[in-house]
């Protein structure tokens, strides 16, 4: 069976009706999971509202408003830049753009994963009161992180304007990079959201794993500082891979085609695997809350 | 054709203690062979609903009675699509409106007008459908210029009035109520009652869970008695209420 609460057009009702009588099993589960995704897409204004609401909540009634978030990130990057720039004896004009671009992207990726873990737990009040599509909630997290990234991107622009020659057209390649990050953020949020709702000790484990990932990903250090086996291992770090998709076009480094292809393969594989998991456990999420 | 049909519906809630909630525990358990099975077998399961079968057709007004924890709210949530049953089938044909939590999803920082849209989205309305209702909600709430102010400036009564107006601004075919709702000060209460009366008269099927025999006699034409997740009896309101009162 399936429902969509509230007032839904007759067409949809007919479609659901035929599904409702399918025998229980994979065919039905997959259809209903797909229907859930469609329902979330149809409710995009609600997803947008929830994301903006989350952002507004953070700078609610503060005088500086949205600028406040950006300033705190700018201070962080500035401080790190001067300390680590000196420590690694790198030229500020290459180090600071690398750090500013990398740090903001990292915060987006880490945000999608860490907050994605709690996407259903945080939506308990909604999920227990209304038959809303479940996939709305990981989408909300992704959108929220994208909005935050757009705020932080101002810093990146300023740093790039100061230190680098004007951005070329190739900088636009980071847009499909962000799109791939967002798509992956969505399936990871959906998958981790389900797992973390069932296993409540997972979010802290994920948070510590992300902490480790931060140090082994070239965010505060330059990838060319690594040599030998360590440099080889970097090729197997998915975070480094996705980060370079967005960062490299911005700082004027070209991204090899193979990197794009691997990223696309990860996106497709992850999405399919998660979709199957979602079909299997979608109906259980409300019970686990 | 509006109908609700439940066949052998089971809703079982697994109760996970800290151990069962733990990923670490499950991971380490793989080494221990049979121990996982043993742990799994010891999960506490609350059987909230057990083999519920009933069917409702156009004109039915069903009242659910039973003690706290008998499964009334769970049954309402199954009918409104929040819980998908672990076993059995549910078929609901018709536009459903579940008026359980009127203020869910309202944004205290948003204005009254914004909240008409937000709540509308929660209820499954499109932007257009919500905008079409604005005039009617303005007239009913009598909030005037307050609708341009954020909800945090509203009094409790005003907030409830708006929430009530938005949630009841519908023409549902199936109306699901957990206890009879009402709103506001005495003058407003009359208006609210009149509005609810219109709503309940227009709905083709109503399911209401209530502890008030008075409400059930007024609204319903049949009643169902639930006990420990089972449907004990279904029939005329007076008969079922009599049986419920006798059992205490």
Instruction: Characterize the biggest β-sheet of chain B.
Output: 6 strands, mixed
Oligomer: heterodimer
Q: Ranges of chain B with pLDDT <50 over ≥5 residues?
A: 31-39
The Rg value of chain A, from CA coordinates, equals: 21 Å
Average pLDDT, all residues of chain A: 86
Strand order of the largest sheet of chain B: 5-6-7-3-8-9
Give the strand content of chain A. under 5%
The tally of beta strands of chain A, per DSSP, is 0
Q: Could you explain how this protein is built, in words?
A:
The complex is a heterodimer of chains A (289) and B (248). By secondary structure, chain A is mainly α. In chain A, 73% of the residues lie in helices and 0% in strands. Chain A is built from 13 helices and no strands. Chain A starts with 9 loop residues before the first helix and ends with a helix. With 248 residues, chain B is an alpha/beta fold. Helices cover 38% and strands 26% of the residues of chain B. Chain B has helices at residues 23-29, 35-41, 72-79, 112-122, 127-141, 156-167, 186-202, 213-219, 237-247, and strands at 3-15, 44-57, 61-65, 87-93, 96-99, 174-178, 205-209, 222-227, 230-235. In chain B, the strands form two sheets. A six-stranded mixed sheet of chain B has the order 5-6-7-3-8-9, with helices on both faces. Chain B has a three-stranded antiparallel sheet with strand order 2-1-4, with helices on one face. The radius of gyration of chain B is 21 Å and the shape is globular. Chain B starts with a strand and ends with a helix. Chain A binds chain B through residues 1-8, 13, 17, 20-21, 43, 45-46, 49, 53, 56-57, 60, 125-132, 195, 198-202, 205, 283, 286-288, and chain B through 13-14, 16, 21-24, 26, 77, 80-85, 89-98, 100-101, 104-105, 107, 109-110, 117-118, 121-125, 127, 129, 170, 172.
């Amino acid at each position: 069976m399936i429902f969509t609460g509230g007032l839904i057009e007759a067409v949809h009702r007919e479609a659901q009706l035929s599904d409702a009588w399918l025998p229980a099993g994979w065919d039905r589960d997959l259809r209903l999971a797909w229907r859930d995704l469609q329902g979330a897409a149809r409710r995009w204004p609600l997803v947008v509202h929830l994301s903006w609401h989350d952002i507004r909540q953070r700078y609610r009634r503060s005088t500086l408003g949205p600028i406040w978030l950006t300033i705190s990130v700018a201070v962080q990057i500035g401080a790190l830049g001067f300390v680590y720039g000196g420590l690694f004896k790198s030229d500020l004009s290459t180090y600071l753009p690398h750090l500013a671009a990398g740090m903001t992207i990292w915060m987006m990726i880490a945000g999608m994963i860490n907050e994605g873990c709690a996407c259903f737990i945080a939506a308990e009040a909604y999920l227990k009161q209304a038959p809303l599509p479940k996939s709305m909630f990981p989408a909300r997290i992704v959108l929220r992180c994208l909005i935050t990234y757009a705020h932080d991107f101002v810093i990146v622009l300023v740093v790039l304007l100061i230190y680098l020659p004007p951005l070329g057209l190739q900088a636009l390649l980071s847009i499909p990079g962000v799109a791939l990050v967002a798509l992956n953020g969505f399936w990871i949020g959906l998958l981790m959201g389900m797992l973390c709702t069932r296993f409540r000790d997972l979010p802290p484990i994920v948070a510590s794993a992300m902490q480790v990932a931060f140090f082994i990903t070239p965010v505060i250090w330059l990838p060319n500082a690594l040599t030998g086996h360590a440099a080889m291992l970097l090729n197997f770090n998915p975070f480094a891979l996705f980060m370079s998709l967005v960062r490299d076009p911005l700082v004027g480094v070209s991204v090899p085609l193979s990197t794009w292809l691997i990223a696309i393969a990860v996106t497709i594989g992850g999405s399919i695997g998660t979709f199957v998991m979602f079909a299997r456990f979608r109906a259980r999420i409300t019970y686990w809350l | 054709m509006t109908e609700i049909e439940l066949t052998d519906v089971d809703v079982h809630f697994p109760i996970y203690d800290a151990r069962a909630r733990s990923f670490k525990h499950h991971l380490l358990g793989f080494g221990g062979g049979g121990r996982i099975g043993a742990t799994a077998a010891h999960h506490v399961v609350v059987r909230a609903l057990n083999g519920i079968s009933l069917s409702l057709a156009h004109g039915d007004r069903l009242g659910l009675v039973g003690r706290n924890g008998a499964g009334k709210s769970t049954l309402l949530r199954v009918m409104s699509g929040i819980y998908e049953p672990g076993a059995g089938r549910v078929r609901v044909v018709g536009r459903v409106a579940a008026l359980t939590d009127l203020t869910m999803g309202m944004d205290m920082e948003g204005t009254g007008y914004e909240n008409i849209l937000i709540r509308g989205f929660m209820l499954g309305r499109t932007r257009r459908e919500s905008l079409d209702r604005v005039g009617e909600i303005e007239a009913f709430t009598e909030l005037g210029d307050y609708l341009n102010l954020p909800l945090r400036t509203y009094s409790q009564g005003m907030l409830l009035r708006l929430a009530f107006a938005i949630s009841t601004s519908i023409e549902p075919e199936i109306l699901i109520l957990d206890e009879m709702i009402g709103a506001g000060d005495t003058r407003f209460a009359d208006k609210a009652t009149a509005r609810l009366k219109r709503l309940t008269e227009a709905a083709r099927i109503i399911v209401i869970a209530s502890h008030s025999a008075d409400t059930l006699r007024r609204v319903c034409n049949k009643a169902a008695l639930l006990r420990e997740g089972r449907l004990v009896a279904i029939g005329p309101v007076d008969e079922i209420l009599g049986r419920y009162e006798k059992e205490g």
